[in-house]
Amino acid sequence: MGGATVKNRRTEMRTSRVKNHLTALTRCLAFGFCALARIEAEAKAIVELSADLLDAFGSAQVTNASSCELRRPASAGGVKQDALFEHPAAVGRRARVSYSLNLPAVEKGQLLLFAFDIGIADGARLDEPADGVRFEVELEGQKVFANDCHECRWQAHAVDVSLFASRRVLLTLLTDAIKNTSYDWAVWGNPRVLLFRGLSEPKMNPAGKVTIPITTGALALNGGMSKDLKVFLKSDDGVARVEWPVSFSASTELPAAWAVRDFNFPHAREVELDWEPRDAPVKIFAASYLPHTKLSLVSATRAVVSNEESVPIRGQVKNDGRGQQEEGSAKVQVQMGGQSLTARVLPALAPGEEWQGEWDWKTPAKAGT
Predict the structure, then answer these.
(1) Would you call 109 helix, strand, or coil by DSSP?
(2) Would you say residue 368 lies in a domain?
(3) What average pLDDT does the segment 237-249 reach?
């Protein structure tokens, strides 16, 4: 935009008129689609990312760790996801990564969970003398989770932190070497605080299955008295069924009662859920992530333009959120000075996907008008 100018054919005088119009275009684009996307999402259960502990790692306090770093991605059991690597430095001195977080308010029908996966990174030799790692979570100095891990595979867990809502809290991730530090390659997968809103338990269809109209979102599972479950997700777009093993058993006194899994079937219309054992007293909630559609580029297609000519204006929109932007749920409205250009309805945009459009803009007849 800074390079775009208007050149008067007769006087050769330049003006910042185009630059000003393009700046106005940026503001207009950003306002238009965000409002519509928000209205669309409010009609169903949604899950909001309240805090991403990987993004916040730069402000965290690390102590007693021989190594602590972000891994984008980390691998456990051949499955990759972004994670925090935290290796305890010595026996009897737990490694600590502490975060100061502002937790949101929680209303009736809402659920606030701290969700994460734990595992030992691939490549670790877990025969003797290695004895695994103990993962712990403290909230305001109170231990709310503890579990020993002895495997190179991800295990999903979540802790209900609703009692700490509407407060600034100290949340700490700890790893304990147990009896030795051999291959204590502890990884915390995608640790995050999630606020679930508008929740209701899905109902069974006539075939005895649970079907949800959500294709990009998160599942929150409460296992009740169950110890080990297998949850299956099957979309209607021909993609192979996804199996999610969940374990609520623990060798410590504070196992998690919840587990959370993100899912994304961008080409499906609905997802069918099933689990084994079928008679397990589980509670399952499903919610959609919100899209975060933002303007990533706006510019004239030429660096120098003249008065009273048609100039293509290019706008680029990106979905930076975790949720799917549904087709037709948002549009881009462009106004340049007194001109209202044709509105464009956005297509479906998966997380990370971009859309680009062009508009023909008639530049002012005179410089300075």
Answers:
(1) coil
(2) no
(3) 90
- 74 and 187, same structural domain? yes
Beta-carbon contacts of residue 61 (< 8 Å; ≥ 6 apart) = 96, 97, 98
Tokens of 150: 């002895």
Domain tally, the chain: 3
- Tell whether 30 and 75 lie within a shared domain: no
Query: With the C-alpha atoms ordered 263, 265, 266, 272, is the resulting torsion angle positive or negative?
Result: negative
Cα separation of 95 and 314, whole Å? 50
pLDDT classification of 225: cutoffs 50, 70, 90: confident
CA distance 305 to 369: 15
Burial class of residue 80 (count of CB atoms within 10 Å of its CB; 0-12, 13-18, 19+): middle
Any idea what the CATH number is for the domain that residue 277 is in?
Answer: 2.60.290
Residue 368's pLDDT band (boundaries 50, 70, 90)? low
Q: Tell me whether the omega of the peptide bond preceding residue 202 falls within 30 degrees of 0, making it cis.
A: no
Name residues whose C-beta falls within 8 Å of residue 14's C-beta, 6 or more positions apart in sequence. 5, 6, 7, 8
CATH number of the domain to which 125 belongs: 2.60.120.1060
Asked whether residue 257 falls in the same domain as residue 298, the answer is: no
Kindly report the pTM of this predicted structure. Answer: 0.80
Instruction: Tell me if 4 sits within 8 A of 300, measured CB to CB.
Output: yes
> For the stretch 154-178, what's the b/e string if a residue is b when 16 or more beta carbons lie within 10 angstroms of its beta carbon?
bbbbbbbbeebbeeebebbbbbbbb
Length of the chain: 369
